[in-house]
Amino acid sequence: QPRLSELSRDDFPANFVFGVATSAYQVEGAVLTDGRSMSIWDSFSHIPGNIYDGSTGDVACDHYHRYKSDTQLMVDLGIDAYRLSISWSRIFPDTTGAVNQAGVSFYNKVINDLVHKGIKPYLTLYHWDMPQHLENDPEVMGWRTKRIITHFVHFAETCFKLFGDRVKNWITINEIWSIAVDGYGFGTDAPGRCSAVSGTKKKVYTGDSATEPYIVAHNALLSHAAAVKVYREKFQPEQKGRIGMVANSKWYEPFSEQKEDIHAAERCLEFELAWILDPILMGDYPASMRRFVASRLPCLTEAESKELKGSVDFVGLNYYTANYAQNIKEEVNPSSRWYSTDRQAKLGCVGADGELIGETMGPADIGWIYNCPWGLPKLLGWMEARYGKREFEAHPIIIAENGCMDLELDLSLKKALHDEMRVKYLNGTLQHLSNAIKDYGYDVQGFFLWSLLDNFEWSSGLVCRFGLYYVDHQRGNRRYPKLSARWYQQLLSREGMQMGLVKT
Ligand code: GBH
C-alpha cells in the first residue's frame, strides 16, 4: 500500500491533538428514545421542502445504538480526541426542569467508553439543537430573548456537574454566526425564521431578518459568557479543565486590487469572525458593524462587555473555504436592510481576473466548498494582526472543524470509498497548518476533522457526505472506511509511519 499522507505527527508540535468531530442531531438518531424530546431541528427537518433530499435526523447514523463500535473506529484511526455535542433535550426534555436520567446515562456511557479507550472527549454544549419547548415558551422564544441565558447556564452547569470529572475540554456554543445568519436571516437552518428572500428559495415570512440575527448572536454571546463564568467560579478550580467556544469563518479575498474590494473583504471578515471574536477577545462588536448596522445592533453594557472579554481559555475555529468579496455600491432601501446587505459585499468564487478561487469541492447545487487551504494561515495571520500578539497568544487555538463533502451526490459505494479529493483537500489543510505553526509560531494545539461519519448534513440532508467512513443509510447504517480513513490512520500511526504499512 503506497503512503497516502505526505505528513506525519512529526510535522506538528509534540502535544498536538488530532481528532474527529460530530454533533448530536447529525449522528445520534433515536430522537424519541429514552425520554428525549423534540428540538428545533426535529421540527424543521420534518417540514417538506426544508431538507434537500427530504431526509431527517430521525435515525441519522443511529450512533445512539452504535456508539461502542463508533468509538472503536476512532481507536482504529488512532485519534487522540473526539469532539461531540450533547443533545439539550435529552437532558432537559420538558418544562418541569427535571433532569432525564436516561439521557444522562447515555452520555455517561459514551464518555466512559472514550476515556476507557484513551480518547479525550471535547464536549460542545450547544450544536444548534434548541429544545422545542424553549423555542415555544413565549417568555423565552429560544435565542430571541435574554431569558435564554438562565436556561443555558442551568443546562451548562448541570453538564459540568455531571460530566466534568471526566471531561476536561468544554465548548459552549458551535458557530454563533451560522445560528444567527442561517437560522434567522437566510432561514435555511432551524428555526427557519426569515423575512429575506435568499437565492431562488422563497421563504415564508416569519421572523424579522433585519434585527433577529443580531439579537440572537447577542444573546448567544451573553449565554456563552455566563456559562464560562459559572465554570470558572464553581468547577474549574477543582475539575481543572478548560472552556472555549467555536467560531466559523471563511477567508475573504478581495475580488480585485481596488481599494473598495480590499475594504469589502476586510468587512466580510469583521461581519463573520470578528462579530463573534471581538466581543470575546476585546469586549465589543467591530466598529464597522456598529457603523453599518447602527441601531439594529444591540449594545453591550459595560458589565456585559466586561463579562465577555477574555471569556475563553481557547478559541475553536472552523475553517472550510474561501470566497472573493466585492464591494457593493448601490444604496439599499432602509426597509429591506439585513445582514446580507449590511455587509455591503457580493460574495463569489470567481475573481476579477476570471480565476476560480480554488478547486470546486462539492456538487453544483449544494456545494459551497472550494479547495483553499492557503486561506487558513491567512485567517490565523489576520487574527494575530487584529487581536495583537498579546491577546492572540493568550488564547491557544484549535481547528475545531475542517473537511469536505463528496463531489457527487449519487455515488456508488465503490466510488464513494475512493475519495482522493478528500485526501487531497485534507493533506492541503494540514500542510498549510504545519507550515504556519513552524513559520509563525502560532499556538494551534489541535485539529478536528469533520467528520467521522457521513451524517445528517443539515439542510443538505443525508446525500451530502462529509465522513471518513461511508454510512449506508439504506442498509442498516453499515460503516465502510473510505480511502481518507486510511489516510488519517497512516498520518496518525506512530509505528507504520515510515513504511505506510498500516493494516485497516
Ligand atoms: C459546520 O457548519 C457545522 O458546524 C457542522 O455541523 C456541519 O456539518 C459542517 O460545518 C459542514 O457543513 O452561503 O452557500 O456558501 C458549516 C456551516 C454551512 C455555514 C455552509 C455557511 C455556506 C453556504 N456553513 N454555509 S453558502
UniProtKB/TrEMBL annotation:
GO molecular function: beta-glucosidase activity
Sorted UniProt keywords: Glycosidase, Hydrolase
UniProt protein name: Beta-glucosidase
Domain of life where this protein originates: Eukaryota
Gene Ontology biological-process annotations: carbohydrate metabolic process
Lipid metabolism found in the keyword field: no
InterPro entries xref list: GH, GH_1_N_CS, Glyco_hydro_1
Native source organism of the sequence: Adiantum capillus-veneris
Family: Belongs to the glycosyl hydrolase 1 family.
